[in-house]
Every structure is written in structure tokens, then in C-alpha cells.
UniProtKB/TrEMBL annotation:
Species this protein is from: Ambispora gerdemannii
InterPro entries linked to this entry: AlphaKG_dependent_hydroxylases, GBBH-like_N, GBBH-like_N_sf, TauD-like_sf, TauD/TfdA-like
BP GO terms, sorted: carnitine biosynthetic process
Stored Gene3D superfamilies: 3.30.2020.30, Clavaminate synthase-like
Similarity comment: family membership: Belongs to the gamma-BBH/TMLD family.
Metal-binding recorded as keyword: yes
Top-level taxon in the UniProt lineage: Eukaryota
Protein name as annotated: 4676_t:CDS:1
The TauD/TfdA-like domain, residue ranges: 220-441
Position of the signal peptide: none
Residue ranges occupied by any Gamma-butyrobetaine hydroxylase-like N-terminal domain in the UniProt entry: 91-154
Length: 458
């Protein structure tokens, strides 16, 4: 039996060569047309026998250990070409690699992505400057190659920004030095490299009923819970095909009493709370307020389109099934969209532009959202234009007349729209006393639901 190693899994991603049709869409399919979010990619993935087999590594004690993630966010160093030489142009640093390829890096982007301790907070790993502070005419005083990368000495200081404290601004003064490693520069060498670094370009396979029946998508629950490699195998199947199946999932875990479905979800992430709660039951109920809780046939659909951010993954755990019928059905919407684009391009264009209305008005809820059935990715080629526009926007946001300030006192609480009201904090002296705030988030759809329901009941 062939046993793939972690490295073979990694290499399978980056060495996949067979091209597939574009699948950089997010598809919404209500009833028979509902919504979900999918990874962006352009290539098929070939895993040899990986679809059928996985190996069992050392057992882990903490399911939050996610070593598998590192294998897909970094490159194999031995396969990265070396920097042969560098030259400069008016706007870009040009790197010539040992594989006889060149790559260009805009000066604004490079300065904005300096990774030194003066630009990136050493423990939080967050930026200490705004992208709007990078001068549009910035250029290096000097560039120099070293063993692991490139050193750049900059000739302009950052633009003043009233939200940045003087002590931080002074550190980013004229003659600031930035170091960029070969690994970093290579990971941004091309759009493909960038997408791979961010897990946006991992390949998927479109499928129909015949193809998916030929794949082994089953994983043992105990192995899924206990072994990182099995978890990785399952996540790859989910990414590649959009679904996977687990066997022998208990109703309740024998060790901690948690529901089996909760153990499965928490092996990947956190439960998402919705109007149906953290977990919910799907069974036939008399006078049900949800068609899923009836014995009627359910057409192919995606759940909760009336949410601004519909759930990414859905989990269904069968506890009992002795009825006649009731088979679960699945279809690959990516395959359908690809065929639509090929065979009916005008219809495809319409579905990317015309929004549909999705709503749920029942049982004390008033949920509503509009979106096109198909949402495509947007291009991002205008580097200088973006920074110029961002500076213009930032100058309006940071203007003194735009800023409202107050000192919160004990017992006071603020609620604000995170996607509208920008927020920050003035610098303070940690030695002068104690500052302790607690924070929380609420989904925007839940807020709108509550607001509409209260208004409707007035």
C-alpha cells in the first residue's frame, strides 16, 4: 500500500500541472440556487493514491496543534532558486533568479511590507504604520545583496500620520533599512506564488456523479480525532472535492461527553452560532417552521443565504435512519457553473451581475440579503493607483474634524458597526494604572434580524 508523507502531500499541491477550467467564482444557489464561498484556483490536483489511503502519524494530545498548516503556507527551500543579481528601475526593484526568470517589486509595496521590528510589532506581528504613510515617490538610496536576500536603504521617511505616535514615526525616519529574504521575495514572485502562499490557489477537482462515486472520501472518526495526518487528508478532500464523510461518529464522546458532531467541528475550528443555535436537529416535526424539518423532498440548495456571511462548512451527523427513502443528495456547483460559462456565456454573465433577494421571515425572525448568484474575483493590478487612492481616503479619515474621542469610564460600553466606524486608541502609560476592557462580536445579520423584527412588531 502506498503511504504518502507530509512532504508528498505538499509537493502534490505545488507540482500539480494539469489545467482545469477556471473556478474562481463564489456561487449562490437559492432553493435550487443558494450561496456559499469556495477557494480560488485554476488547477486540478493529482494525488496518485492519496484519495484512497492515509497513514497514521504519532498521536497528538492537543487537537489545536496544527502543524499541517505550515506545510501549505511555505515552500520547500531546496526548490527555491537563488537571487543572481538585482537592478533598479524608476518604480521597481528587479530581481534576476538563478532559474533565468525575473520578477519586479514595486518600491511602495516593498517599503510597506518591511518586516523589521520598527515596522512590525515583535509580539503581535501587526504593522506599526499605515499603508497610507508610504510616499508615492519613495525609492531606495542603495540596494545590496546578502546571503539570504536583499537589503534596501530608503531615501524618504514615512508621511506624518496623526494616529501614529511620534516615537514610532521617528523610528521610521530617513535612511530606514529593510531586509527581504529570498523566501519572502520568491513567494511574491508571481500571482501564482502569492495565491499559493495564501492558500488561494490550491487546486480543486470539479466532479459529476460518476467521478465522485469512484473516489474514496471516507475517514474513520477515531483517526480523524487523533491524528493530524488524517485530519489533513480529510481537509484536502474537502478542499479538492467539497465534501468528505466520517464513519463511526458516536452520538456523544466517551471521554468528555461532548456530542460527536461538536468534537468533529472543533477538530477544525469553532461552532458558528445562527438563528438555529450552535447545533440543530433535522427531523420531521408536525407544523414545522422550517421545510428541512418535514418529510418533504428538498431540492439542491445551500443554507442561510439570507445571512451576510453564510456558513462555510456544514456538518450533518446521522443518528437514526430507519425510514424508507431519505437519501442525501449532493452536486458540485463549480462543475455546473463551468459548464454554464462554456455553453451559455450570456447567462453566466447575467448571473454575475443581477442580484437575487434571499430572505427568511418566520418564527420571530426577519432575515434579508441581496447578492448575485455568482460572485467572481476582482483584478488587483493597479498598485500605484491603489496607494494613491488609499492615501486620499486615509487623509479624509484621519482629519481632525473626522475624529471623535472620549474616555470610557468604568461601567460604560460602546457598540459600533465594525464595517463602518473605524476605531482606535490613544497611547497610554501602562505604569500609571490599569486599563481593562472586554470585547465581543456580533454577526451583522443577527443585528439586522433583531432590528427588523422589532420594527415589524411596532
Amino acid at each position: 500500500m502506498y503511504v504518502p508523507s507530509i512532504n508528498s502531500l505538499k509537493n502534490a499541491f505545488y507540482n500539480a500541472k494539469s489545467k482545469s477550467l477556471r473556478s474562481n467564482q463564489r456561487i449562490d444557489l437559492a432553493k435550487n440556487l443558494k450561496y456559499s464561498t469556495f477557494p480560488r484556483n485554476n488547477e486540478l490536483l493529482r494525488f496518485n493514491k492519496l484519495s484512497s489511503y492515509y497513514t497514521l502519524p504519532q498521536k497528538i494530545n492537543n487537537h489545536h496543534n496544527r502543524q499541517y498548516g505550515k506545510d501549505y503556507t511555505t515552500y520547500n527551500n531546496s526548490s527555491i532558486p537563488k537571487i543572481r543579481n538585482i537592478t533598479t528601475s524608476v518604480d521597481d526593484l528587479i530581481v534576476n533568479w538563478s532559474d533565468n526568470t525575473d520578477s519586479r517589486y514595486n518600491y511602495i509595496w516593498l517599503r510597506d511590507n518591511c518586516n523589521c521590528a520598527e515596522c512590525i510589532h515583535p509580539t503581535s506581528r501587526q504593522k506599526l504604520h499605515s499603508s497610507a504613510q508610504i510616499p508615492l515617490n519613495i525609492e531606495p538610496i542603495s540596494t545590496m545583496m546578502y546571503d539570504e536576500g536583499i537589503e534596501i536603504l530608503w531615501g524618504k521617511e514615512l508621511l506624518k500620520n496623526i494616529s501614529i505616535s511620534p516615537s514610532i514615526s521617528s523610528k521610521n525616519a530617513i535612511h530606514h533599512k529593510s531586509l527581504f529574504t529570498q523566501n519572502f521575495l520568491h513567494s511574491y514572485k508571481s500571482k501564482r506564488n502569492i495565491s499559493s502562499k495564501r492558500l488561494n490557489n490550491l487546486p480543486v477537482s470539479h466532479w459529476d456523479a460518476a467521478l465522485i462515486r469512484s473516489k474514496n472520501l471516507w475517514v474513520e472518526y477515531d483517526h480523524f480525532i487523533s491524528y493530524d495526518r488524517v485530519l489533513l487528508h480529510a481537509l484536502i478532500q474537502i478542499w479538492k472535492y467539497g465534501l468528505v464523510f466520517l464513519r463511526n461518529v458516536p452520538e456523544f464522546n466517551s471521554l468528555d461527553g461532548k456530542a460527536g458532531i461538536i468534537k468533529v467541528v472543533e477538530r477544525i475550528g469553532s461552532l458558528q452560532n445562527t438563528i438555529y443555535g450552535n447545533i440543530w436537529d433535522v427531523k420531521s416535526i408536525p407544523d414545522s417552521r422550517n421545510i428541512a424539518y418535514t418529510a418533504l423532498e428538498l431540492g439542491l440548495h445551500m443554507d442561510l443565504l439570507y445571512y451576510e456571511a453564510s456558513p462555510g462548512l456544514q456538518f450533518l451527523h446521522c443518528l437514526k435512519n430507519t425510514v424508507n427513502g431519505g437519501q442525501s443528495t449532493f452536486a458540485d456547483s463549480f462543475m455546473a457553473v463551468t459548464r454554464l460559462q462554456q455553453q451559455h456565456p450570456k447567462d453566466y454573465e447575467i448571473l454575475t451581475k443581477v442580484p437575487m433577494t434571499f430572505h427568511y421571515i418566520n418564527d420571530g425572525h426577519f432575515m434579508h440579503f441581496n447578492r448575485p448568484v455568482i460572485v467572481v474575483d476582482q483584478a488587483n493590478d493597479s498598485m500605484v493607483e491603489f496607494y494613491r487612492a488609499f492615501q486620499q481616503f486615509s487623509s479624509l479619515v484621519e482629519a481632525p474634524e473626522s475624529r471623535f474621542e472620549l474616555l470610557l469610564k468604568p461601567g460604560e460600553l460602546t457598540i459600533f458597526v465594525n464595517r463602518r466606524v473605524l476605531h482606535g486608541r490613544r497611547r497610554f502609560d501602562a505604569k500609571s494604572g490599569e486599563r481593562h476592557l472586554k470585547g465581543a462580536y456580533l454577526d451583522m445579520s443577527e443585528f439586522k434580524d433583531r432590528l427588523r423584527t422589532l420594527l415589524m412588531n411596532e
